[in-house]
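Per reviewer request, we include the raw input and output of the structure prediction for the construct analysed in the revised manuscript.
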Amino acid sequence: MQPTAPDSRTAPAAGKKTAGDVLARAKEALAKKANLKRKLDELKSQKAAPGADSEAPKPTPSTQAAQRKRAAFELIQAPEGASYARRRRTRALQFLDEEGKREREEARRQEEAATASAPAAQVASRREPPPDVEWWDAKILVNKQSYPEKVLDETILMDKLTHYVEHPEELESVVKEAVIAPAPLKLTRKEVKKLRTQRRLAREEEKQQLIQQGLIEPPKPKVKLSNLMRVLSADATADPTAIEKKVAKEMAKRHAAHEDRNLARMLSPAERRQKKMKKLLDAVPGDSLQEVKVAVYRINHAPTSQNRFKIEVNAFENHLTGTCVVGRDMTIVVVEGGPKTLRRYEHLMLRRIKWRDEDDENDENDEDDPPCKLVWTGVVAEKAFSGKFRCVDGDPKAAMQDKGVAHYFELCGSVSSAS
C-alpha cells in the first residue's frame, strides 16, 4: 500500500509559522505575566500580615529588583553663623561703596563751585611761581640755586655745551580758545530754486506713495465753474442750479483755507525786523563772531548842512557806528559795521554825494584831487565807537585820541601831505 501525500491545503509547509502558533505563544506570554503579578501580590500581602517574616519565602531576583528603594540626596544644612557672617560682610561692602560715592560727589561739587566762582584770571594765577633757576639753565650752571651776576667760564659747565638743540616740552594753555563756527555756505538764486523744486517733488512723491498704500485718502477733485460740465456731467445736467451753488461754496472754502495758510506763514513784526537786519548786516544781530570792518574817509573841506545830514542819516539807516568830526583844515569820517553796509556807505561817500558846489564843478583838478577820499579800510578786533553816529565840530586829532585811534588821524594827515 503506497503512502498518501499530505494535502497542501491542510498541512503547513515546513519552516513556516501558522496563525495558531502565533496565538498559542501570545497566550503563554499573558499567562506568565499573570503568574508574576499574582506572586508579587502574595509577597506584598505576606509582608503586611503579622508573623509573615518566618513563613515568607525567600525573594527571587525579580522581586528584589522591584522592592529596591532609590537612594536620595541628603542635604546638610549650613550652620547659623555662616549665613550671619555673609550678611554682615555684604552690608559692610555696601556701606563702604556708598561712603566712597558720597565723598566723590562732595569733592566734585566743591570743585565745580570753586571753578564757577573764580574768574579766569584767578584760575591762571593758581599756577606755581617761576623757579629761581630754570631747569634748562640748571644743567649748565655750577651754582644751581641762583643765576650768577656775570657769565664767566668759572660759573658755567663748559663740558655740557654741545652743538645739539634741546626742545622743551610744550605746556597746555590754561584758558581754552573759543571754537569759531564755520561760516554757512551761501547758495546762488538758481541753486536755491533748484533745492526748493527737489523738496517739493520729494513731498509729492511721498504723498502719492501713502495714497497708494491706503494710509491717507486721495484728494477730492477741484471742481470749478469752468470745468463743471466736464467733471460732473451727469449730475450737472440733472440739477444745474444746485450743483453750481455747491461748486461755488467749495471754491470759497478753498480760497479761505489758502488765506489762512498765508496768514499762518506771515512773520510777526519782530521776526520781520530781524530778517531785514540779517539781510542788511549779513549776520544775526548780537552775534559775537561777526567781523567788524572800519572805513576812514577824509574830506578836504567842511561839508554843507545838506551833506552832513546825508552822512548822519545814512550811517543810522545802515546801523553803522562811528563819528564825523568837522575840523578847520579837514573833516574825518570813521564808520564801523559789516561788509555789506560799508559797501553801501562807500557808494554814498564817493559817488552819490556832490561835494563841490555848482561853481566848482568845472574845476580842472577834479580828478587829481577829489574832495572826499577813502583813506583806509580793514578789519579790527572790536569797535572803538559806541552809540549813535553823530557829526560834531571840533579837533579831529583830539577826538581820535579820546577813542584810542589816533592812528586814523595820522593816516589822514599822511594822505594830505602825499597829495
